[in-house]
Specification:
- The chain contains six helices and three strands, in the order E-H-H-H-H-E-E-H-H.
- The chain is mainly alpha-helical and 305 residues long.
- A three-stranded antiparallel beta sheet has the order 1-2-3, with no helix packed on it.
- Helix 1 runs antiparallel to helix 2 and helix 4 runs antiparallel to helix 5.
- The protein starts with a strand and ends with a helix.
- The model has no long low-confidence stretch (mean pLDDT 87).
Length: 305
């Protein structure tokens, strides 16, 4: 029976536990990555559905512009070019609607794939997109990321594992033992049965060629694991800061769109419509007002999405 130097078996068990913990964190990281992909695809699908609705509303506005141009042309106050240009813009808008529907179809297929659903299953309906405020400041989010990020947790486990590996390498400088026992039965009429016990020791006499390089390698692996952990910690903080600033500024932009740009653009379009119908504004100015509304609608929901 081999008897390792006291503490070696315990260290080997703890090293194995750290490896298992690191593997569990890798699994959790993959699970969260898939979950994030599902959420991102779902919200993109919700954005496309909202964009489809906005395009439908903008098409109604463009139809009013086209009807106004046709009315002025029939009354001899406009020209055919205005009517044709309005029709061209409506055709372009229909193209945007079809492209949106195409993108929705692709996104539906991607979401079903992520959810492991049949591609022939019913399409997934999304809830209405709504704005939400940040519930935490950056310091709280950073602390939560450091405490709950599975990538960081897995790398921390590897740092701990390499620390234990150093302890185990130091134990290899001490001898291991072995105990042997033997019992032999002979002819009972002539000899008695006898027992034999022996204790052995394996002494590490080649320290410079084996134990010291192994210790140096373990220390190098520990330093590399620490460096990887610190690098990942900084990368996580960097990415989180970017996302936090983006969310903050997006909230401000949404307010500007909601309370300023969109109402102003629609009011300008309605005023321009009335001025065009009374022959106080040309068609190009009216069309420019509509295109402003269309562009701002798209930018608004791109920011929200």
């Amino acid at each position: 029976q081999d008897l390792p130097y006291p503490g070696k078996l315990r260290l080997k068990g703890e090293i194995t536990e750290k490896e298992a913990d690191a593997t569990q964190q890798k699994y959790e990281s993959i699970r969260r990555a898939v979950l994030a992909a599902v959420k991102g695809t779902y919200f993109h699908l919700g954005y496309l559905a909202k964009q489809q609705k906005i395009l439908g509303e903008d098409e109604l506005l463009l139809r009013q512009v086209e009807q106004a141009a046709e009315s002025r042309y029939r009354n001899g106050m406009g020209n055919q070019q205005d009517v044709l240009q309005a029709q061209l813009e409506r055709t372009k808008l229909l193209r945007e609607v079809n492209m949106n529907q195409l993108e929705q179809g692709k996104t539906q297929a991607e979401l079903k794939h992520l959810l492991n659903r049949s591609q022939t299953s019913t399409d997934i309906a999304t809830a209405e997109l709504s704005e939400s405020t940040l519930a935490y400041d950056f310091d709280q989010l950073l602390a939560g990321a450091r405490a709950n990020n599975p990538d960081l947790a897995g790398m921390q486990k590897m740092v701990e594992r390499q620390g234990l590996q150093i302890d185990l390498a130091k134990k290899d400088f001490y001898p291991d033992f072995n105990v042997q026992g033997m019992w032999q039965r002979t002819d009972p009429s002539q000899f008695r049965a006898y027992y034999q016990f022996s204790v052995g020791m394996r002494i590490p006499i080649y320290r410079s060629r084996r134990q010291r390089p192994e210790l140096a390698q373990a220390e190098s692996d520990r330093d590399r694991a620490k460096s990887d952990y610190e690098t990942q910690t900084q990368q996580t903080a960097f990415q989180l800061r970017q996302e936090f600033v983006s969310a903050e500024k997006s909230a401000e932009l949404l307010k500007i769109y909601r309370e300023g740009l969109l109402p102003q653009a629609r009011a300008e379009l309605q005023a321009g419509m009335a001025a065009y119908q009374s022959n106080r504004q040309d068609f190009q100015a009216l069309l420019a007002s509509f295109l402003d509304v269309l562009k701002l609608d798209e930018e608004h929901w791109q920011t929200a999405g």
